[in-house]
Amino acid sequence: MRYLVIRTENLTKMYGRHLGVRDLMLEVEPGEIFGFLGPDGSGKTTTIRLLLDFVRPTSGRALVLGLDSRLDSLKVRRQVGYLPGEFDFFAHQTGRAALRSFENLRGKLDWVYVDGLVERFGLDVDQKIGDMPALERRKVGLIQAFMHRPELILLDEPSRGLDLATQQALYQLIADVRQEGRTVFLASNSVCEMERLCDRAAVLYGGQVMAVERGVHLRARALRRIEMRFATPVPLGAFDALPNLQDLHITPHSLSCTVRGDPDTLLKLASQYRITDMLSQSLSLEEVFRRDYGIVCAA
Asked: What are phi and psi of 298, to 5 degrees?
């Protein structure tokens, strides 16, 4: 059997009559950025908690770094980096003291590397975590997940609550980890984040994997709503030949449509006319699910 960083075998979790996840069969290769894409309540957090043995499966099993997640849970947690959806640990300690506490759990750290992460995220580690704004607490959570250079890092909605600068620092750090041949398992409800970062992504809904997509295919599935206004009249059939436009509506001075995949061809064609205003907006995950998988997400 080839080595896999994560392997789940019919992994199922029931909370009484409520389904967490059902019959998950995941295989995550060494060195890849693997996405777990789904709306809130689809089972993303449950899966990560099963991998770390924070909850026990109803049936099936998970192997993490070749270790059984239940029988070897302490070894798994020591070796894996983990960012939970909400980071609220060590509120009475300073950021640096909290990182020292994590060192006691995971083994001796390279503090030059840790200080580099602190500088990268612009964190004041001398402030008490309980006094930090939510963004700064999130930075502590990110640093502790990466700081021991684990072979596998599990991130639960890592971009939640981040400003643009911190998000860019995170994305660059994930790229660095991939360059070093380490693995990231990334749970998110953002199609844009998945298609930007991931080699592959499992599409999760209702506790079940609907598909496993390559990042390039997610890019092709990306949906954007684009509206344009023109200073001079545009021929009504000017954009009819573009194959990736949906819901096209055009008047002499305006255009609105949904673009699937790369909008470059539309933008190049539109640039032949004088554009006075343009709006581009990525459609929601729920809309992608409806159009691509025939799933209507519950409100």
From this structure: -65, 145
Selection from 56, 90, 53, 60 nearest residue 74 by Cα: 53
pTM of the model as a whole: 0.80
- DSSP 8-state assignment for residue 284: P
The SS3 call for residue 107 is: coil
Confidence at residue 112, expressed as pLDDT on a 0 to 100 scale: 95
pLDDT > 90? residue 103? no
Would you call 64 helix, strand, or coil by DSSP?
strand
From the list 195, 192, 197, 196, the residue with the least C-alpha distance to 217 is 195
Please report the pLDDT score of residue 192 as a whole number.
76
Beta bridge partners of 28: 6
Alpha helices, H only, the chain: 44-51, 73-79, 95-106, 111-121, 134-146, 164-179, 191-197, 215-221, 264-270, 285-293
d(CA 51, CA 69): 6
